[in-house]
């Protein structure tokens, strides 16, 4: 039997700190909703807009897989592992916080805002050595199909994390339909519609809506706009740690 949650964009938690305008899919910081703590191993999906020349100062994390997806602009990253990188729209960044890291993320541009998705996934292995990676992907490889951006396997396309989870980005045109087959019986599928309008199974999603489905074998994604951009997260419904 299919199980489902559907969160409309306007129902998310929201905070505007001036330098940061952020929407929380799950409970985070001052936003707390006991019915929206996590989706299996997926703990955080924040939709962040950072003002020009500002950003997140140096702060710690541990035992969390952290994925950043810039949507507009560029972020300047620094961390306690010695990495200094610029993450541009089209890049994917991952950090395994493991035994503990400090990092900062700033809007590289002094004249315009930046937008990115900040995602946290519980790992399936605790206290690993912290690690950092980023890649640049070809957006043409996700037109009317799903492009893998995260997996559990270092040899696969995209970056990898310590969890049996797979992330995909798709840019689906009007009239096109994709069937996504769930990777593992224990996993659910969480879809975040970045832009456009899409029918997922029997539910219609608008920009920034999310749907979570579990106890299913596949999900049907059908675009109902000229350009529907979607993030698909295939993630364990139970956490091991």
Task: Please characterize this protein's 3D structure.
By secondary structure, the protein is mostly beta strands. The chain has two domains: 12-136, Jelly Rolls; 139-236, Jelly Rolls (Sandwich). 0% of the residues lie in helices and 55% in strands. It has strands at 3-7, 13-16, 20-24, 42-50, 55-61, 65-72, 74-79, 84-88, 91-96, 101-107, 114-121, 131-136, 146-151, 159-160, 166-172, 177-181, 187-195, 197-200, 203-206, 210-214, 218-223, 228-236. The chain has a seven-stranded mixed β-sheet, with no helix packed on it. The protein has a seven-stranded antiparallel β-sheet with strand order 2-3-4-11-6-9-12, with no helix packed on it.
Give the arrangement of secondary structure elements.
Layout: E1 3-7, E2 13-16, E3 20-24, E4 42-50, E5 55-61, E6 65-72, E7 74-79, E8 84-88, E9 91-96, E10 101-107, E11 114-121, E12 131-136, E13 146-151, E14 159-160, E15 166-172, E16 177-181, E17 187-195, E18 197-200, E19 203-206, E20 210-214, E21 218-223, E22 228-236
Parallel strand pairs: 13-14
Antiparallel strand pairs: 1-20, 2-3, 3-4, 4-11, 5-10, 6-9, 6-11, 7-8, 7-10, 9-12, 13-15, 15-22, 16-21, 17-20, 17-22, 18-19, 18-21
């Amino acid at each position: 039997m299919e199980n489902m949650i559907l969160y409309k964009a306007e129902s998310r938690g929201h905070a505007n700190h001036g330098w940061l305008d952020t929407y929380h899919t799950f409970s985070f910081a001052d936003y707390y909703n006991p019915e929206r703590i996590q989706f299996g191993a997926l703990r955080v999906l924040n939709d962040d807009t950072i003002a020009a020349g500002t950003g997140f100062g140096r702060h710690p994390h541990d035992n969390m897989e952290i994925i950043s997806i810039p949507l507009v602009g560029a972020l300047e990253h620094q961390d306690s592992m010695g990495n200094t990188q610029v993450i541009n729209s089209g890049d994917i960044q991952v950090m395994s916080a493991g035994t503990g890291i400090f990092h900062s993320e700033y809007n590289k541009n002094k004249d315009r805002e930046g937008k990115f998705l900040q995602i946290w996934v519980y790992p399936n292995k605790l206290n690993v050595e912290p690690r950092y990676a980023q890649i640049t992907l070809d957006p043409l490889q996700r037109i009317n199909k799903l492009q893998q951006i995260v997996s559990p396997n270092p040899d696969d396309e995209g970056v990898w994390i310590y969890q049996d989870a797979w992330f995909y980005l798709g840019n689906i045109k009007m009239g096109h339909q994709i069937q996504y087959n769930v990777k593992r019986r224990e996993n659910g599928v969480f879809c975040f519609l970045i832009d456009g309008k899409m029918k997922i199974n029997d539910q219609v999603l608008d920009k920034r809506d999310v749907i979570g489905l579990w106890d299913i074998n596949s999900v049907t994604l059908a675009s109902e706009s000229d350009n529907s951009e979607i993030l698909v997260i295939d993630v364990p419904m139970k956490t091991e740690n």
